């Protein structure tokens, strides 16, 4: 069972992140003034791979995006793959965006 990590939104760096010891798994984003958020890149340090941390990071990020009422554009393949596995999250994806 993966530990439950606290999601931080580092607005200056434009990334959602966890702080785990010396490591910072993150999802980089770009927010538009029209209420869209583009998730561009997910990065989990090699030392933390395979522990479900990336999936937890995506899940908590999607929850925060939904809470803010933003429309999601998942440009990052990892995020898109997560949404494909968890299709209930399509509800926050911007209309007209196809997830392959």
UniProtKB/TrEMBL annotation:
Which domain of life does this protein belong to? Answer: Bacteria
N-acetyltransferase domain mapped to chain residues: 8-94
Return the InterPro entries for the record.
Acyl_CoA_acyltransferase, Gcn5-rel_NAT, GNAT_YJDJ
| Pfam families membership | Acetyltransf_CG (PF14542)
Q: What is this protein called?
A: N-acetyltransferase domain-containing protein
**Natural source organism:** Butyricimonas faecihominis
Q: What is the lineage of its organism?
A: Bacteria, Pseudomonadati, Bacteroidota, Bacteroidia, Bacteroidales
């Amino acid at each position: 069972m993966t530990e439950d990590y606290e999601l931080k939104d580092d607005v200056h760096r434009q990334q959602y992140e966890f702080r785990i010891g010396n490591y910072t798994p993150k999802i980089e984003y770009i927010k538009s003034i029209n209420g869209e958020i583009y998730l561009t890149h997910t990065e989990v340090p090699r030392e933390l791979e395979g522990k479900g941390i990336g999936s937890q990071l995506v899940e908590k990020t999607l929850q925060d995006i939904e809470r803010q009422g933003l429309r999601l554009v998942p440009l990052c393949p990892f995020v898109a793959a997560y949404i494909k596995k968890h299709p209930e999250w399509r509800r926050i994806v911007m209309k007209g965006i196809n997830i392959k």
